[in-house]
Specification:
By secondary structure, the chain is mainly alpha-helical. The chain has one domain. Strands 1-2 form a two-stranded antiparallel sheet. Strand 1 and strand 2 form a beta hairpin. Helix 3 packs across helix 6 and helix 6 crosses helix 7. The longest helix has about 40 residues. It is flat, with a radius of gyration of 21 Å.
């Protein structure tokens, strides 16, 4: 397995149980839907957008947010701040512990798990899930607006300072 990545510290063996849990959960959801006679409503383009935004937000919250760092602490070591309310952490441990650490610190890795949760919710509790997805989508859009506002503010500050110096 070391040859796969060329490094001995990879959590390759720990990934198999995570894959089994994800696949088993997805299979259980499909089985429960069949047994209960529930069929998910085919998503509209708007549904895809809102679920994508909510998945993005949950992924960032789980993997990078300072407030959720206690959830990652058993698998990581704090390295420092990483920008707006986010932190940088180094994954610790070996095997399954390292694999879980890599999962919970990677927004790209945790995204499919979040999406599975939302799609499961759309099947078994559509109204509640729609409300949660809507709220998380609103927060994700607000985050982008905060970042855009801050970037615009940074671009205009030097010009304002030059204008004040020229007038003074």
């Amino acid at each position: 397995m070391e040859r796969h990545y060329g490094r001995s510290d990879r959590a390759l063996r720990g990934y198999a149980p995570l894959l089994a849990v994800f696949t088993g959960t997805a299979g259980a959801v499909v089985g429960a839907a069949r047994l209960s006679g529930r069929r998910p409503v085919p998503p509209t383009p708007w549904d895809l957008v809102t679920v994508a935004l909510a998945t993005h937000k949950v992924s960032r919250l789980v993997a990078k947010d300072a407030v959720t760092s206690p959830l990652r602490a058993p698998f990581t070591r704090f390295e420092g701040p990483a920008g707006d309310a986010e932190v940088t952490e180094e994954v610790t441990g070996r095997g399954a512990r390292k694999a879980v650490g890599e999962l919970v610190t990677c927004p790209f890795c945790i995204g499919p798990w979040a999406a599975l949760g939302f799609l499961t919710g759309r099947t078994f509790a559509p109204a509640l899930t729609q409300a949660i997805v809507g709220g998380l989508s609103a927060v994700a859009i607000a985050d982008f607006l905060h970042l855009a506002y801050a970037a615009a503010q940074q671009r205009t500050e030097p010009r304002e300072q030059r204008d004040q110096e020229a007038a003074g």
